Every structure is written in C-alpha cells, then in structure tokens.
Amino acid sequence: MPLGAFLRFFSKDLAIDLGTANTLVFTQQHGIVVREPSVVVINKLTNKIEAVGSEAKEMLGRTPGNIESIRPMKDGVIADFEVTERMLEYFIRKAHGKRMPVRPRIVIGVPSEITQVEKRAVKDSAQRAGASEVFLVEQAMMAAIGAGLPITEPSGNMIVDIGGGTTDVAVISLAGTVYSRSVRVAGNEMDQAIIQHLKRKYNLLIGERTAEQIKWELGSAYPLKEELRMEIKGRDLVEGVPKTLTITDNEIREALSEPVSTIVEAVRQALERTPPELSADIMDKGIVLSGGGALLKGLDDRLREATGLPVVQAEDPLASVVLGTGKMLQDIDLLRKVSIQ
To answer: How many domains does the chain have?
Structure first.
C-alpha cells in the first residue's frame, strides 16, 4: 500500500488511554473526542448496560439492588474482561459518531510493568470491541510525548505519570525507556486512604465520589499557605444515622501521607538507578508530572524538597497520555519502535 493511502487509512484509527479512573479517546481529525469515567452500570437481572461513562459515575453508590456500578479497570489493568469489552465498544462507537466505516486500528496506553496475561486481556478486549489491530504502548512514554518532551534526542527525560490505578515513573532517552517502574498506588488509593481515615478517626462512612471530591478540594502533599475547610456528609457507623462533619486540609494531608510517600519513594529510586550522564540532563530539565494525580496540591513542592530537582506540571496533565498516544497515529515508524509486544 502506498504511504499516502496507508496514512489516510490510518487516520480512521483511534488512540485510547484506557485508565482506571477515566478513559480518553483521540482521533486524528478531531483530537480528544471522548473523556469519560471508566464506569459501567449494568442491570443484573437482564445483563443490559444501563449507562456508561459520566452518566454511570453519577449513579455510583446510588443504585438499587438489581443495578450494579462497575469499574472494570483496576490498578491500570482489566479486572472485568466482559464489562471492559462492552465499555470499549461503547467508547469506540461514540468516537466514530455511532458509525464504524472500517474496523479501526487502535493504540492503547498501558502501565510499564503490565504482565503478558494482562497485555493479552487488553488486546483481546479491544479486538472483540471492533479493532482490526491493536498496538500497546507504555503510558509513561506516551505521557512524555504528550507533555512535549524531546524523547527521540540523546538526553534524559524523566516523567512521573500519576493515574487512577498506577503511578508510572520513567527515564526516557533516544525513544527508549532507560528505566521504568510502575507502582499500583495512585488516585484511587488516595481516595481509599481518605475513606479509611474518616472511618477510623470519626466512625464516619463516606462513598467513593465524596472521597474524590475531598481529595480535589482539600487534598495536598505539602503544607498550604492558607487553611482549607470543608463540610462533608456521611453515615455514622456507631449510630447508623447521617452525620455532618467539618474537616481541614491538614488532616486530609495526614490521611494521604502514605500513598504520597510511596510515589515520592518511587521517584527517588528512579533517580538512584539513572545513569550519571542522564542524571545531569534531568538536573537541568527537571521532573515532569502528568496524570490526574499531578493536580494534587503541593505535590510538586513535595517532590522538589525530596529530590532537590526542578519539578514542572505537564500543560494538560489529564490528557498527556492520550495526546502522546494520538501522536503515534501520525508517526507509524516511531509507533512500531515504541510499541510493546
């Protein structure tokens, strides 16, 4: 096939950031066309999908007994094969405006330490959802490309991509990964840490959506200049009745200390194992943060203090992976070079 025809054919194709918390889909013509939570609501009696994405997330913790809210992705990989397939099919159709003129090729970002079994699950799900061919690429590499780092040059670039299920830390040079580490501690783990803290300290039970809201409004990794307060509602575990409580950023920072420390330690280990020549480059350029977790207040200050290096946030942290993956649709040679088998 001539290159021009091949590129025209390839333009029908999709780049997908199949995340634990959110799924983003990119097309060459329209950019990001889907940006929705990775949540599916299923009727257990009929096995019919009632809602997907944003609509499904609104129902989290609010469904009757026969309706189940499912997050089919856990720690960056597929936990529920069948539901992931149906979710992917929905997002692929949505990206193509309900029409699928051809079976698209799909490039999907996955965590760096994904197992062979997990890779096969992602590929099979995408193929059964309508893909003609599936390329898997490392999320950290894609985040670096999406953040505009010069990954093909012979210099060190460090990216820390904090998603919903995993934090990927990578040092990249000459379009290759010199060092990569994936820890299964990220945004969802932070939400759970907040839930557990309030349960232990106040006997107050809150849901996932409330925990996520607390994380965005009060959560921080470093002391803030001004104290923040928030009124939250939950259920008193002792008396079993609804209860309202006012909490501060200080105690939420305490609740998040363990997951944040794990992420900081992963970055320190990456720096220790980076070759000296590349370390010098990173000292000049600094560390780039991407993913939803990069938006946690004061995380850049915390990493700056722990490493002594400059720390910057990607321009659009939530979309870095899918933007990088989208660039692969235009550079087939680089895609074949960086895709993992």
So the answer is: 2
